[in-house]
Amino acid sequence: MTDLNEHFKDLKANLSKHYAGDHYRLVKLCLYDHLPLGDFEGRGLTAHNLFNKLQAKGYIEPSNVKLLMEIAKLTEFKVAEILVLEYVKDNNIKQTQINIKPMSPYRKRLFDALQQVEGDSLSNVIAYYNLEHFGLKNIWDVVFKLESNEELKDEPGKIEKFASLLNERAKKLLLDRGNCDESEGAPLSRPSEESGANQANQLLPVTETKPKSKPDSVPRANEDHEPMPGVAPVHVPSTGHQCNYNSIIYD
Question: What domains can be seen in the chain, in order of their start residue?
Fold first, then answer.
């Protein structure tokens, strides 16, 4: 168990290096339903801090990295997927039922939609919600602010109003409930400081991330991604064989 714990520490550290800078916003938005707002406050917070908070609440642990893989797949960050896959394979992780709070269908639709925001959508949203004085420069920070103020949440009226301000591609992804299987789970409530993983006991659904083009103004995370300046690349050792996450986790 000591070795597994050390390997898990390394995994969190290596993942956080590649979710630095602008890419930290992606992790932050992914985890809005899992952590109370207070956990996102403070200067100098990193993805590593958020991963530690997830572990403290029982959402991830050395033998449970499903949520980390879900983040990697949703952000289309290939290096993150590889890091988790190799960890799973090297440590023979085959647990199939755990306490976890998977991301809601709404959050997945929202995330997919934000990656397609372009044109005047950002300025439309900022103007409609009177956010000019906050100095927000990207859609990720804008949406986090709206959710924090409960001006955007998983309610039809609020979703439709926000969607009406977006370009057609982003709007369609957000409103298309067929884009994510609604049977994956009910909308998630805002967690309290005391809430933990005992709020849910369900399997993480297997999802496929479809490739999509992204506008240059949106943070990109894919197989061509290079580490942020000043961050050394993480070497992922080859195991000599292909590693299939679904076959490992869901056997």
Answer: 2-98+219-249 (1.10.533), 105-184 (no CATH)
Rounded Cα distance, 44 and 117, in Å = 27
Q: Rounded to whole angstroms, how far apart are CA atoms 228 and 33?
A: 27
Q: Tell me: the pLDDT tens digits for 6-52?
A: 999 999 999 999 999 889 999 999 999 999 988 988 788 999 999 99
Give the integer Cα–Cα distance in Å for 123 and 78. Answer: 31
Q: Which of 168, 158, 117, 161 is CA-nearest to residue 139? A: 117
Q: Picking from 40-44, 47-51, 135-139, 214-218, which range would have the lowest pLDDT averaged per residue?
A: 214-218
The mean of the pLDDT values for the chain is 77
For residues 174, 69, 6 and 225, what is the CA-based torsion angle, rounded to 10 degrees? -80
- Rounded Cα distance between 207 and 180, Å, is 9
**For residue 57, is it left (φ>0), alpha (ψ between -120 and 50) or beta?**
alpha
Q: How confident is the model at residue 123 (pLDDT cuts 50, 70, 90)?
A: very high
Nearest to 213 by CA among 229, 224, 200: 224
Helices (H), 19-176: 24-30, 47-56, 66-74, 78-90, 105-114, 121-128, 139-148, 156-163, 168-175
DSSP 5: H
Six-digit token string for 208: 């496929």
